[in-house]
Amino acid sequence: MSDLRELYQDVILEHSKAPRNFRELQNANHKAEGYNPLCGDHFTIYLDLEGDKIHDVTFQGSGCAISKASASMMTQSVKGKSKEEAEKIFEQFHQLVTGQANGDPESLGKLAVFAGVSEFPVRVKCATLAWHTLQAALEGKQEKISTE
């Protein structure tokens, strides 16, 4: 089990140091800002929606290793998905990081690396900030999203 934890930590650190899709999306037609006042994490999620499909998704901002890795892996997970599919992935991810997952964490693919977050309740907000912000962008909300 310690080998698995180490692998998970390595994946999170790697995504934190070299986040994927970390840039402003020039042709974004939806965006939202999210903020975690507890630790200062702050991200903007940019979406290019074509109908109901997430054609492209990127993010910018700053945060701890968990929040940045989560945002990076989220963009990879939802790109090309429908709004409904993205919301379903978020629901499964949220259950995973809050310790409420009923199924196999591996069904989330690479996102399963966040399973250990449930052991640290204060880190749940770090892991879910980008996801809540994505949800706001999908819904077209204009106000800044806060984890408080």
Outline of this structure?
The chain has 148 residues and is an alpha+beta fold. It is 43% helix and 20% strand.
Helix content: 40-55%
Separation of the first and last Cα atoms: 33 Å
Unreliable parts: none
Strand content: 15-25%
Radius of gyration: 14 Å
Describe, in plain words, how this protein is organized in 3D:
By secondary structure, the chain is α+β, with helices and mostly antiparallel strands. The chain has a single domain, classed as Sufe protein. Chain: A (Alpha-Beta Complex). Helix content is 43%, strand content 20%. The chain is built from 4 helices and 4 strands. The protein has a 4-stranded mixed beta sheet, with helices on one face. Strand 2 and strand 3 form a beta hairpin. Helix 2 packs parallel to helix 4 and helix 3 runs antiparallel to helix 4. The radius of gyration is 14 Å and the shape is globular. The chain starts with a helix and ends with a strand. The model has no long low-confidence stretch (mean pLDDT 92).
